[in-house]
Amino acid sequence: MPQGPLTLEPSIPPRPGLSVGPPLRPANATGRDAGASPGAGPGSGGPSALVPTPKKRDLRSMLRRALRPPRRLRFTTEGKYFVAISIALGIAAINTGNNLLYLVLGWMLSVIVASGILSEASLRGLTVSRSAPQRIFAGRPFLMGLGLKNDKARLASFSIEVEDLVGGRPIDKKCYFLKVPSGRLQQTSYRHTIPRRGAYRFEGFQVSTKFPFALFRKSRLVEHAEEVVVLPALHGVTAPAAGALARGEEPRGQLGRRGEFFGLRELRDGDDRRDVHWRATARAGRMMVRELEDESVREAVIHLDNALPARPTPAEDEALERAVSMAASLGAHYIGRGFAVRLIARGEQVGPGQGPAHLTRLLRALALLPTVADTVSFAGAPPARAQNIFVGRRGAARPPAGMTSVVEV
Questions:
Q1: What is the pLDDT of residues 246-276, one digit of tens each?
Q2: Is 248 a member of any domain?
Q3: Would you say residue 48 lies in a domain?
């Protein structure tokens, strides 16, 4: 087993000139940024060296399965001493011919044989399942659920450890099951935190046991591939007021029966008396009514600058991640206030929508949003009847014309 904790690396499509770490392979990654040349990428291999083609991946998986031993056996510290003593007793028994030494040696060898048989019986007939939470946010702890079912008809399994595998290695969390009776399913969970957004591929499980005498650690691998999308971190934000939708004398919103307060005007024929604002009427000396902005046309458009230079510095990379997190937070804020939210980035966009389902779609798009060159244009123009918010790195690019507000991080 590898020593030390394993750091998960997201499988966001790689940036030109930036290594993405271990080859965690998303199901839909192309290995190339929009606007990047086919030969761009670290070293001389280009992006294809980072994400193997499906044919290579299948061949590699077949060879790994064919050459993989059915079980892995490792000595524990106690097991090393026990085997060393057994060897020493065997040598002493052969040299001296002492029957008592032969008796003790036989007992110790029977313990080793019994350990192998009982540990194999515990590992057989086990089915492992994973239950990921519906939403996982970057930098926020979450609980990953694991279930272990004993499919054996009569025998129970004892002292079972289950570990998730990423990149062929177990992560730094284990789930322990003391006893799983026959035909029963037991569930537990482990707490983990993934620091960055992106798609992460969990390949399977390592199931191991030291039952019954803790002399050996026997383990087997269970394939159970699953991709988990980690959403950008959300923070509390203060967005521009919904009423700030006017430029000069031209109103930018429509009026309706429901919505945010838009303004006051004098009573006209046909107005509803329920809209009379009595305090303003008392101050003005004439009948004044409220005007409300129509909720159906309240739209917030977030323009995210997802460009990075060919060889970004760590500070630039972190600034872009903060910008993505700010865009996600603004989207959640406006959707919570009933706005129709639209995302426009360089090379990609998400159409307007409302409600929790659209928020999930927006966050997922931001989680998988690739970085591009600054030569790639935005996928849409700022609408005239919306709040247009530009989000980008500080001093990286000039905001497009028509922005209601600019947020730089």
A1: 333 333 444 445 555 667 888 887 777 777 8
A2: no
A3: yes
pLDDT for residue 50: 26
Considering the domain architecture, whether residues 62 and 176 belong to the same structural domain is answered as yes
Are 86 and 109 in contact by the 8 Å Cβ rule? The answer is yes
Domain of residue 312 covers 297-408
Residue 239 lies in a domain: no
Q: CA–CA separation, 334 vs 340, rounded Å?
A: 8
Task: Give pLDDT tens digits for 13-48.
Answer: 444 333 333 333 333 433 334 333 333 333 333 332
Q: Could you report the per-residue pLDDT of 319-345, keeping only the tens digit for each?
A: 999 999 999 999 999 999 888 999 999
Do residues 288 and 302 both lie within one domain?
no
CA distances (Å), origin 192, targets 51, 198, 228, 233, 389: 26, 16, 13, 15, 34
Residues 6 or more apart in contact with residue 29 via CB below 8 angstroms: 11, 13, 51, 199
Largest CA distance in the chain: 121
Specify if 247 maps to a domain.
Answer: no
What DSSP state is assigned to residue 271?
-
